[in-house]
């Protein structure tokens, strides 16, 4: 398997988990990126600064990784720009329908054993596997 990095992946997973736990303990908030972003795009008084700081920390972290370990962010996209845009649009729709994203449901909700998050995560991943299979094997890719 090309690019298999169990140690780095485990460290990344641990850091994501710690960030989610820290946000919940310190601020009483769930680290669902779609909800955090929505709160920045539609701000309410006294509820925006922590969201901007959280998202800024994600951006700064990515920039640090790019600077310290640039090959970690090297990606190869095997589909057209249209497929990427369509995928992003469908993820956005799914996030609205599912009332949250994979970070909120998958990392935080499943970690809290929330039944709704377990169902949402199972649906997210099932649809992702089916969609990937459909695009790659039925349509031949975009």
Helix content: over 70%
What is the first-to-last residue Cα distance?
24 Å
Poorly predicted regions: none
Briefly note the structural class of the backbone.
mainly alpha
Secondary structure: elements and pairs:
Blueprint: H1 6-27, H2 33-41, H3 49-68, H4 81-97, H5 102-111, H6 115-138
Helix pairs in contact: 2-3, 5-6
Model description:
This protein has 142 residues and is mainly α. It has two domains: 1-76, no CATH class; 78-142. 72% of the residues lie in helices and 0% in strands. It contains six helices and no strands. It has helices at 6-27, 33-41, 49-68, 81-97, 102-111, 115-138. Helix 2 crosses helix 3 and helix 5 (102-111) crosses helix 6. The longest helix has 24 residues, at 115-138.
Short description:
With 142 residues, this protein is mostly helical. It contains six helices and no strands.
Main features:
142 residues; mainly alpha; 6 helices
